[in-house]
Amino acid sequence: TDLLIRKLPFQRLVREIATEFKQEVRFQSQAVLALQEAAEAYLVSLFEDTNLCAIHAKRVTIMSKDLQLAKRIRGDRF
């Protein structure tokens, strides 16, 4: 499917985070693409669950407490 986040900003973010752990890090372009696809799939799924929590609370607007509840139900630690 099409990506939701532009490639270059995502690539910059990956490199920024990676340099916090090791200075000279290199990535194959396919590795960054795989990271982006996985990250987007996770976020889309999380926001779907977050929206369900808001709907259950009879709201149409998601709130941070919906996100926290969705993560807790899923067992996400991050």
UniProtKB/TrEMBL annotation:
It holds the Pfam family Histone. Keywords: Chromosome, DNA-binding, Nucleosome core, Nucleus. This is Core Histone H2A/H2B/H3 domain-containing protein. SMART domains: H3. CDD domains: HFD_H3. GO terms for molecular function: DNA binding; protein heterodimerization activity; structural constituent of chromatin. It comes from the Eukaryota. GO terms for cellular component: nucleosome; nucleus. Residues 1-73 form the Core Histone H2A/H2B/H3 domain. The keyword ATP-binding does not apply. InterPro entries: H2A/H2B/H3, Histone-fold, Histone_H3/CENP-A. It is found in: Chromosome; Nucleus. SUPFAM superfamilies: Histone-fold. Belongs to the histone H3 family.
